[in-house]
Input
Amino acid sequence: MDTFLQITISGLTVGAMYAVGTLALSLLWGSMGMLNMAHGGFIAIGGYTGYWVMTVLGGHWLFVLPIAGLAGMLAGYALYHLVVRWMYEREDFSVNIIIVTVAIASLVENSLLNIAGPSAMRQPFKIPSGFKISDVVVPYQTLLTLAVALVMMVLVSWTVNRTKVGYVIRAVSQNKDAALLMGINVQLAFTQALVLAGGIAAISGVMVTSMTQLFPAVGYDTTIKSFIICIIAGLGNIPGALTMAFVLGMFEITVQYVFGQRYGFPAMLGLVVLVLIWRPHGVFGKATVNRV
Amino acid sequence: MNKQKNSTSSINIRRDLWIGAVFLLVAALLPIIGMSNYVLTQVTLFFIWAAVVTQWNLVFGVAGVFSLGHMAVFAAGGYVTAMMGLYLDINLWLALPIGALAAVIFSLLMGAATLRLRGPYIAVMTFAIAQGIYALIITDVDCFIMADLLCLNFTGGAKGLIHYGNFGFREWLGYSHRLWGNYYMGLALLTLGLVFALCVMYSPIGLTFGALRDNQICAEARGINRIRFQLLVFAVSGIFTGLAGGVYAGILGTIGPDIFSLSLLLFLLSMMVVGGRGTRWGPVLGAAALMVVDSGLREIPEFRNFGLALIIILSMIFLPGGLVKLVHGIFHWQPRSLIKLERTDQQLRQFQNQKTSKTKVY
Output
């Protein structure tokens, strides 16, 4: 019974980490059709900003999340104006952006490596202890990550579905030309989506690094796993992505417990391939009809 | 119309043959002129990377299947070749085709796993597959064989595989000329790979790949079996990628998980992007350009990835057609006014066509 509980708690912890990392990716993919491989860069930027706020500036922990979010927003703004705006009007945007964002991820990683050094650090934004349920420790950090993931999901859903900014972003994602003809500022909508996604990714970066460690390539692993979760959940389906994050987290931990640590990720991949053969648009995805 | 098209394609073939012949002649004579060992090794590496990117271009550029897992195919070829030499004591020359076969099978499996996916999904999935294999290799700590009280893992683990033999150039050519053997081996690999890739591109199969890339639905409506051709392109590109992996393993004498690293993927990707993806000579041109830039970047190793990433971003923004298009533009230079005139003419014709055609296809 204790083993079962332990696996559940560990799965929940890993799932919370994946869930929080998936949000921004899902948002950008769903709204702009932009596969952001530089997601890991945003996560690293958020993590390092949080670290610097608390150690170098000596700030209170209350400031960590807002300032990290601001830094991410700035990065998103820069990403749009330096790179994306030159590309989205050309054909093959969805593929070109993958190539460019892979390069940007490497750029950010290399810069952080030169600025902060290669050694892994401990993220100071962390609640250390936990409480016990019959010999199994439930870390407070897990609950905090869960709470942040849920709050951000509600915030994102509300922004996308209820506010004017959200209407504009959705209109542009559905039909750019029609939106332009209706007098919508397409460039502004794109910027807003990227700024929003950047901020969320950076905040999730603080949460992710506080559960692992802080090093320049920290976002890499999370990005790959977030992508897999996005794919298996279906394109841009945020609640679906969160559900799958927990399902896959549980699955990974179970496999790690039964077969050994090293088979967790490959088993997860195998499961995803099988699921995609069964449902090519993801578990929660709807089949879309492509027109010629 | 058809006849005219045939004649342009035969002109293209003839031009490609001339370019290839000149390239081969220059490359074959280079070591005789006398070059330092460092340059010789770098050029050998250029041959291998150019061969890999040429095959990758078949999948990524010609067929439009955005596989980011091509280095895993390369690794499959290299690792199997090395393992054949290490565990079964097979001569590396014999192990090469076995490695290529393994790479083809692996490539086919990867193609099969991504069959039902589209565009960006494929990029993520293949990338994840490569990362999964990387994770399996570096966490491999079980002893497979014991040699001199040293524990050797089956895949070599994080250290990689060593001591599996070589191509025997040192015995044939003597110590001072052993690099020549590597050099000509690499050149042969690139030449054969290029001829193979060009044959595929000019053949009906290559045209089918292009049709599936440009408009999949129309191509399928014309009776093209997408599943068969996607598997075919993965298999076709696997052959010389696997051979390149084996040659790499044989020449360097070591093969490790650093093949899967992001910086190497970025390096090869930038070769394809800078050269011009989907073009015939883009990969070779891009590989040459990147090797030159990289030898400069090696002076400042901490900024190497930074520089490579910057090159990719800048060339994607300012040079979307790649170097090939730039060179083409130099040879086919036209005054700006003429280009403008041609464009308006084209637009006018398009407009007339739209007006006359009664059924509009959406």
Q: What stands out?
A: Strands of chain B lie at 145-147, 150-152, 161-162, 254-255. The longest strand of chain B covers residues 145-147.
